[in-house]
Amino acid sequence: NKLRTYTLLNLMEFIDLKSQQARIKAKIDHRIQDVLRHGRYVMGPELDELEERLKNYVGTRHCIGASSGTDTLLIAMMALGIGPGDEVITVPFTWISTAEMIALIGATPVFVDIDETTWNMDVSKLESAITEKTKAIMPVGIFGQTADMTGINEIASRNGNLPVIEDAAQSFGATHHGKKSGALSTIGSTSFFPSKPLGCYGDGGGLFTNDDELAERMRHIRVHGQTERHHHPILGINGRLDTLQAAILLEKLEIFDDEILRRQKVAQAYGDGIRNSSVTLPRVGPGNTSVFAQYTILSSNRDALSASLKEAGIPSVSYYAVPLHLQPVFDGLGCKKGQFPVTEDVASRGLSLPMNPYLSEEEVAAVCDVIVSAEG
Fold this sequence. Notes:
By secondary structure, the protein is an alpha/beta fold. It has twelve helices and eleven strands. It has helices at residues 2-9, 17-38, 45-58, 69-79, 97-104, 149-158, 212-222, 243-254, 256-274, 302-311, 341-349, 361-375, and strands at 62-66, 87-90, 108-111, 134-137, 165-167, 175-176, 179-180, 187-191, 205-209, 295-298, 350-353. The strands form four sheets. The protein has a four-stranded mixed β-sheet, sandwiched between helices. A three-stranded parallel β-sheet has the order 3-2-4, covered by helices on one side. Strand 6 (175-176) and strand 7 form a beta hairpin. The radius of gyration is 21 Å and the shape is globular. It starts with a helix and ends with a helix.
């Protein structure tokens, strides 16, 4: 049995796109051949179909497919007219794209620490960060669940109806009080990067809104600010989603809900298997569901635990080990070590375990055995 387990572990995947592709390969191939036949490789009919399907899935009036989950953040802020001299509030515990786009548009990222339990924006610290320069709030749905969007929207509303841009790159498919991530604020932005719960085979992203005017502006910005042929009244970018990626996403969307359920079962199995160890388990916030884009634990012996997992053939990742306020590119913001203590604690102890819909019970049990042995 031990030999069998180690043979199994040598094949363990952190994300495992291979099993997913095998499941739907024939349908993916058919979709790709359709695109090759009609030859409309950019903004083709599959994009229209995908946008219709996604807006219905999320529950918004509009969906705008775009080139990446990074570009969608930029497009959203451009549509809102955010620029130099403005401030946008976000969190320091996230991938750099969130704050990077704020800086690239000429605005200033303002950080708010994260909550101790969900590791998303701490709503109790949000209002004190708002100034007369604040032009938007950009919460992030880290590791698969949304922030407290109800609380964030209430604060935004009583502070001049500030727009809220939900960075749903990791929480797409999750719900907050029954509503889908992406439909919880002024604009929802997500990523279809291959490792995301709903990912394509390259870069891709999507924008969601119920505001007709904002949707129209974002569509124009996506194509260089063009409203009609040879007419560019606003600045835009090359933010289009390739037709091949749209075609792939259409087939992946067919199995997306099933994959979410599988992820949740894996997360439950992890929790049951390591509950009696010394590690801190992820917690899903009140009214939330999670798609478990990652299954992240906190360990005071993270490096040693990661080494033990590696020795057993199990991959693990320390996401955001250096939070954004301590990244040298943001030295000019004047943030200091210790300024965001919860972020720094989670960044120093967080370890993400293999998470994908195709992990077997044996694989999950083997991961748990290593953790219990190392952290019991």
